[in-house]
Amino acid sequence: MNRPTVDLTNCDREPIHLLGAIQPIGFLLSLTLDWIIARASANIAEFIKVDDGDLVGRPLSEIFLPETIHSLRNRLATLRGANAVDKVFDTPLTPRGQPFDIAIHISSGQIVIEAQPSAARHGDATSMVRSMISRLDVMGEASAFYTEGARQVRALTGFDRVMVYRFAEDGSGEVVAETCKPGIGSFKGLHYPASDIPVQARELYKRNLLRVISDVDAVPVAILPQRDEKGQLLDLSYSILRSVSPIHIEYLKNMGVRASMSISIIVDGELWGLFACHHYSAKSPSFEIRSVCELFSQMYSLRLESRERKEVMDYERRARDISDQLLGAVATNEMLLNDPEWLAGVLTDVIPAEGVGVWINGNYAFWGITPSTEQFARIVRALNTAAATRVFATDEIASLVPEAKDYTESAAGMLAIPISRSPRDYVILFRRELVRSVRWAGDPHKPVEYGPNGPRLTPRESFAEWQQLVQGHSKPFSAPEKRVAETLRATLIEVVLRLAGEASAQRD
Ligand code: BLA
Questions:
Q1: Dihedrals phi, psi of 130, to nearest 5 degrees
Q2: 65: left (phi > 0), else alpha (psi -120 to 50), else beta?
Q3: Going by C-beta distance under 8 Å and a sequence separation of 6 or more, which residues neighbour residue 316?
Q4: Residue 425 near residue 388 (C-beta atoms within 8 A)
Q5: Could you write out the DSSP letters of every residue in 315-331?
Q6: Whose CA is nearest to atom 8 of ligand 1?
Q7: Which atom of ligand 1 approaches the CA of 205 most closely?
Q8: Tens digits of per-residue pLDDT, 342-380?
Q9: Residue 223 pairs with which residues in a beta bridge?
Q10: Rg (alpha carbons) of the chain, rounded to whole number
């Protein structure tokens, strides 16, 4: 089996967990389940004294101290599940050898041991995380909560830049918070296309919460033999030292970044985002710091999850209040058409939009930035033929009305609420094209040079790529927004019925 050639068009297919190499900051051994060495990274002699000759096929007990093997066996016995990794700190591996930090896990039916020379310990991980977390609990606004998370990670790790990178539903992302050393420019507010962190990487990051790239200039070290007798490569999904995709290395190089680390933020079982860290010289956080980061991120994710639940509840409560306001206002507003500004104010309070159009019995009224009357009429006709009896939302009106691609500066997306039983009357919320509402922040680092994969792998180019991808699209209407719109539809139908009732009573 040959490895597929990876280029910028098929990044999703690069098997990043099967690259067969580690970073040179430590070494790796894989063992059969009876502790016979099956594979070793080619750099092992740089770390421990081994006799000449091949290690493969020899019992680990010929090399490691018996007490070290004993504590590793204990760790293995208490590992929770196949996907767990345990660590032992500050332990010598060989007689009179230096102490190592060691990680142990099971993969592809083998025991995987990774070791890195010990670093100075910081203290008790749990109490460190507790004090980091306590500072988060006083953060009110979401943006303050994100920034404080980034600050805590930076204080712990000392990376030059720490960002909170948040994924959108389509896999693209935005830097929503950032803290960095002065004078290195800002990425805050920038958006990037989904392909910058391809699908298989996002999947892996849901399972394995942290990865470090210590030095983009370091030469990866092969794990030998690459394949076992069944022809299998060692699955490095849970490896601590895994060497990473050369395409991503080039991306970092073009950014001028020398070392990077990212930690997954998981909300409701999905990859919500990452703490993304950059350093402008080589950097290799210790196993202990990595563990604290992972634990912090898990606690942070739980806090975020409950904040987001509360936000949805608050949002739905506000939507109910708005429904009540609409119903209550009928007595004073004879016709919705007479005061579109009031109606828009009420609606956009819960579903942000730049413009609102109301269409009742062939009469219409507008507020904000909307298509023209003729364009609006054609949208309504298209909606009628689409038999919209429920709320209809799209981030690309042109998918329904092709001419809409010519007026994305006034409306690129819409949410249409049918407000009469026959689908003829509507309240429509309009959103402008997304790229127009996004800020191009700061002046990101100039790329140092372009590598073999060309200029696409730079932050500025990926912002341009993202701009192209979202051209003609608005910010999509979210699932909670669509749910709220359904509630408002029921209310508006009732309002319209009442208005019709009042009108006919006045005529009688
Ligand atoms: C991985 N891409 C990543 C990672 C990040 C980014 C954070 C995780 C690895 C890490 O911690 O460094 C992207 N980094 C960003 C973004 C910002 C940032 C958006 O700082 C914004 C400020 N990358 C590309 C293209 C491809 C690609 C075009 O730009 C593929 C053709 C691939 N990115 C790619 C791959 C990985 C990756 C394969 C996985 C690396 C690995 O874990 O092995």
A1: -60, -40
A2: beta
A3: 480, 483, 484
A4: no
A5: HHHHHHHHHHHHHHHTT
A6: 262
A7: 42
A8: 889 889 989 999 999 998 888 888 999 999 999 999 999
A9: 41
A10: 29
